Amino acid sequence: DCLALLECIDPTDRCPYCFSPDYNLANRTCPDCYKAKPVFARVASVFDYAGPAGTLIKKIKYSDKAYLAEGAGAYLAMQFLQLEWPMPDLIIPVPITFTHWFSRGYNQSHLLAKGLSKIVQVPVQEALVRKSGDFSQAGLSHHQRLKLSGETFFLKKNQELRDKTLLLVDDVMTTGKTLGKCAEVLYEQCPSSIYA
User: Fold this and answer.
1) In whole angstroms, what is the distance from residue 67 CA to residue 58 CA?
2) Longest dimension (CA), the chain
3) For the whole prediction, is pTM greater than 0.70?
4) Over the stretch 124-181, which tens digit does the pLDDT of each residue have?
5) pLDDT tens, position by position, 172-195
6) Which of 40, 47, 41 minimizes the C-alpha distance to 11?
7) Is 143 in a helix, a strand, or coil?
8) In what order do the strands lie in the sheet with 165-169?
9) Nearest 5 degrees, angle CA 105-CA 110-CA 112?
10) Is residue 86 over pLDDT 90?
11) How far apart are CA 117 and CA 114, in angstroms?
């Protein structure tokens, strides 16, 4: 019954660069990505953050139901394989602050990445750290999110990412700002491409 309530997004209806539903078939992109060079090789999501899928993510993130991440990670794998993207060399979860990790006991994006990793057989690497003291974006408006500072994410020492294909995984994408800031830091190591 629960499975029947989860509706996956058809990626052919979305911009392949930012996953916006404002997709122009003639240009094969959305108006924003048509005007500016996209940050990522491609971006996708499994679900819209609404209804039962939104509840699933909220349960993982806020209700101490970490065990749900493995099944959600399987949905990530299903969508990833459907997209026919190149297989990444590494899966990199978006980090959370120590404060959030301490209160939650886990990083939900890391758990989703592990669920995906188990199926596609690609290692998860925690290459990024997030500055502590950073606050939750959950209550921010779209405009407030876009104005956030980029000095939140840092590369861990001794990361070998040059010429690698990377897949960034986050639990929720709203404006894409968080993923974009992570990508900016990762690009310092000259990977061949970054997908999200």
Assistant:
1) 13
2) 48
3) yes
4) 999 999 987 545 555 555 554 455 554 589 999 999 999 999 999 999 998 888 999 9
5) 998 888 999 999 999 999 999 999
6) 47
7) helix
8) 90-93, 165-169, 193-195
9) 110
10) yes
11) 5
Contact 177, 148 (CB under 8 A): yes
HSE at residue 63, side-chain half, CA atoms within 13 A, is: 11
SS3 150: coil
- State the CB neighbour count (10 A cutoff) for residue 36: 10
Torsions phi, psi for 173 (to 5 deg): -120, 120
The stretches of the chain forming alpha helices (DSSP H) are 2-5, 31-35, 51-62, 68-83, 98-104, 108-120, 142-146, 177-187
Distance from the first to the final alpha carbon of the chain: 30
Strand partners, 155: 128
Q: Give SS3 for 62.
A: helix
CA-to-CA distance for 121 and 69, rounded, in angstroms? Answer: 17
The predicted-structure confidence for 45-69, as pLDDT tens digits, reads as follows 999 999 999 999 999 999 999 999 9
